[in-house]
Design a protein that fits this description.
Blueprint (H helix, E strand, L loop, with lengths): L5 E5 L4 H12 L3 E6 L2 H10 L7 E4 L5 H15 L4 E4 L14 H27 L5 E5 L12 H21 L5 E6 L7 H4 L17 H13 L4 E3 L2 H12 L1 H12 L6
Parallel strand pairs: 1-2, 1-4, 2-3, 4-5, 5-6, 6-7
Helix pairs in contact: 1-7, 3-4, 4-5, 8-9
This protein binds NADP nicotinamide-adenine-dinucleotide phosphate.
The site of NADP nicotinamide-adenine-dinucleotide phosphate (NAP) has 27 residues, from helix 1 and helix 6.
């Protein structure tokens, strides 16, 4: 793999996406930064090494025409894409009886539909890329849902399933499709998510930093693997949920506490 990769990062205006953009620029990559907030994208771009080499793509991922235009602009700017990191994503903290259909659709549109549309529009540019890699950002709860986050967990489960399918679909094209599962990470994610009943956020005292997640994502770019958990015990949590679902339910019920805390 040559250095100086041509990278597209969705969700680059904040959190994990911002950290990926910063690390990628520091290793010599050119980065196309995609999100809705132009001012935040500009702030990130100005903070990157060789800031004039990077591109800002202001785009709402729910707008298909805007996604098409943004990917065309990234392709024209760099001539190809070697790495696409899908970090844009939103949470939704609500139990089933509290769900709003509009909000369910919003989560699925950003966390699932947009990822597929970005990949479809990125394909011609990835095919021109050097050892192209796509990284989907999943979640520790992609393989095992938890109460109060059923829509978010379902969206990441759908993304995990789509990653498996796309990994095989794109293998003959030489494009590696990888899935990285962060756990609780110290970003604005929990402040901006819909949480109509003000359920308590997770304790961020032992959370990972966005830089830790970004390092794993760029390591996956160097050494592509199908599915990577930030911590190995979360992988065992996913496996336990499959082979011993009832025991995992009991363990989770104890760990999560009473329903009003979940
Ligand atoms: N933080 C955690 O504990 C955690 C744990 C597991 C997985 N994850 C996953 O990690 C990824 C990154 O999350 P984060 O923690 O970095 O959260 P974050 O700081 O809130 O960043 C989310 C990013 O998504 C972008 N975004 C949201 N809606 C968008 C839209 N409609 N169109 C375009 N961009 C949009 C936001 O940019 P704009 O607002 O500017 O559009 C922002 O850049 C997400 O996929 C999340 O599910 C996070």
């Amino acid at each position: 793999m040559t250095s100086g990769r041509r990278v597209l990062v969705t969700g680059a205006s904040s959190g994990i996406g911002e950290a990926v953009a910063r690390l990628a620029a520091a290793r010599g990559d050119r980065v196309a930064l995609l999100a809705r907030r132009a001012d935040e994208l500009e702030r990130v771009r100005r903070s990157l090494e060789r800031r004039d080499e990077h591109v800002v793509l202001t785009c709402d991922l729910r707008d298909e025409a805007a996604v098409r235009a943004a990917l065309a602009e990234a392709g024209r700017a760099f001539g190809a894409l070697d790495l696409v990191v899908h970090s844009a994503g939103i949470g939704y903290r609500a139990r089933l009886d509290e769900l709003e259909t509009r909000s369910i659709d919003r989560v699925l549109a950003i966390n699932v539909t947009a990822v597929l549309c970005v990949n479809r529009e990125a394909l011609p540019w990835l095919e021109r890329g050097d050892q192209p890699v796509v990284v989907h950002v999943g979640s520790v709860i992609a393989r095992r849902g938890i109460p109060g986050q059923l829509v978010y967990a379902a969206s990441k489960a759908a993304l995990a399933s789509a990653s498996e399918a796309l990994r095989l679909e794109w293998a003959p094209r030489g494009i590696q499709v990888c899935l990285v599962h962060p756990g609780v990470t110290r970003t604005p994610f929990f402040d901006v998510q819909e949480n109509p009943h003000q359920r308590p956020p997770p304790d961020l005292a032992h959370a990972d930093t966005p830089e830790q997640v970004a390092r794993v994502i760029l390591d996956v770019d160097r050494r592509p693997r199908p599915e990577v958990w930030l911590r190995s015990r979360w992988r065992w949590f996913a496996i336990a949920g499959l082979i011993a679902p009832k025991a995992t339910d009991r363990w989770l019920a104890r760990k999560l506490g009473p329903p009003d805390r979940q």
